[in-house]
Design goal:
The structure is a homodimer.
Chain A: H1 9-32, H2 39-45, H3 60-86, H4 91-108, H5 110-117, H6 129-146, H7 156-162, H8 175-196, H9 207-219
Helix pairs in contact in A: 1-2, 3-4, 3-6, 4-5, 6-8, 7-8, 8-9
Chain A binds a DNA duplex through α1 and α2.
Chain lengths: 222, 222
DNA sequence: TGTACATCAGTGAACGCGCGTTCACTGATGTAC
DNA sequence: TGTACATCAGTGAACGCGCGTTCACTGATGTAC
């Protein structure tokens, strides 16, 4: 019977080592990309032998899976926090706050963003529980957009979404709002991922302004 | 003095082997991702020893660089072809044709799309001549949008672009059109890259319809 | 407070693997006279 | 048409590397009486 909330020194130590392994893993990913992640290299950095890490992670794949989960969790938390903080503001401001939370989180560590939304590795399947987090993120977006009624006529895609709204996790928003939230996601991702990938590199303009302009477009007429 | 247009049998053979190496490389990339590309594995598939390939490519990096160049070239050609074919049509149809050419090209081989626009490998620098191709692609987009006058007031970002238009390669389009072409790019990439990465996987709706809806949005009011 | 035992962190050796790349060499193909 | 030479494709052995992972073991830390 472990008393919840109590930790033994050993448990604390374990948690500490696990955390350090992850920290170094993120540094490696930021430096050389996720495919270069090496357990042995991390162990060496920590002054330990390679096999020692198997006390803490069952395998390299296990570590990566946990990093993905952590990244997802962190993004969802950042979005939720921004959402709660902005809940009392005008609805436009709510959406803007969400957008900037996402961009800020992505800029903190681009490779972390790409670990979630970047090039998929054929054959790799993300852990199941991440879909729950994805739903949570969509829920925050739907909340933000619920207060902003769509202004145009219903589109064919709105109608299509009526029949495919299980991903909204029971959210009561009308399908035009689902559509709007999807568009919010894809448009932000479009600007953001190209910026993070350096595709605007030699172009000279300020990506932050392009992002802002795109956000304006999303809010225009509402 | 090589007579241009004439090839010796040896040259033809060389070209043939190089082409087969690349073909197998693309298959490997499609199957396991670009980071798994292995010269030895390709050689084995072709019934040759590993070192043999060094007659055809200076190094693994060299091969990848050439694949990137080829991918870029192929995309630019697809866009240009679609553009020329649609040049006589109404301007809206021109833009639509471009969008579908891009999506079609991407769906042919998602990993090829990601090799250009996907997660960057920290430290890797794309070959210089790809920037020329990127300019060519932008030129096609600018051509398509030139016929569609912007309908809203000039945005702050339009003004910002006045000072940063060297990437347009001397194209005479007004900066509002540059802005429009950029947005065209980022929005299509947003929907497309999430689709190709499988992010809409469990959601149930048809990504083609979302793409179409986003394209409609780009053309709305013009 | 002290002893006996169980738990667990970490080590070092080892296995098997595949990678990129170099090198000296063989044998076939093409070229010049 | 035939011979002498140069070019070039491909081989096999080898180098050095780092990887993930297993295993039997040591030694320290915590637990029970």
């Amino acid at each position: 019977m472990a008393e919840t909330g109590t930790t033994t020194p050993r448990e604390r130590y374990r948690a500490q080592v696990r955390a350090e392994v992850k920290k170094r893993a993120w540094e490696q990913i930021a430096t050389a990309g996720a495919s270069a992640l090496s357990l042995n290299a991390i162990a060496k950095q920590m002054g330990m032998s390679g096999p020692a890490l198997y006390r803490y992670f069952a395998s390299r794949d296990d570590l990566i899976t946990e990093l993905i989960r952590d990244a997802y969790r962190s993004l969802a938390d950042a979005i939720r926090a921004a959402s709660e903080k902005a809940a009392s503001e005008k609805s436009g401001a709510h959406v803007v706050a969400l957008a900037h939370a996402i961009r800020g989180w992505a800029l903190e560590d681009p490779q972390r963003y790409f670990l979630i939304y970047g090039t998929p590795v054929p054959g790799y399947h993300a852990p199941d529980d991440t879909t729950a987090i994805a739903v949570e993120i969509m829920a925050s977006m739907l909340d933000a957009w619920t207060a902003l009624p769509p202004d145009g006529p219903a589109t064919p895609f709105d109608a299509h979404l009526e029949d495919h709204r299980q991903w909204a996790g029971g959210h009561p928003a009308p399908s035009a709002v689902l559509h709007q939230a999807l568009i919010f996601w894809t448009r932000l991702h479009g600007v953001l991922s190209l910026e993070l990938a350096g595709q605007f590199g030699g172009m000279g303009f300020d990506p932050a302004l392009l992002f802002a302009a795109e956000l304006d477009g999303l809010l225009a007429g509402r």
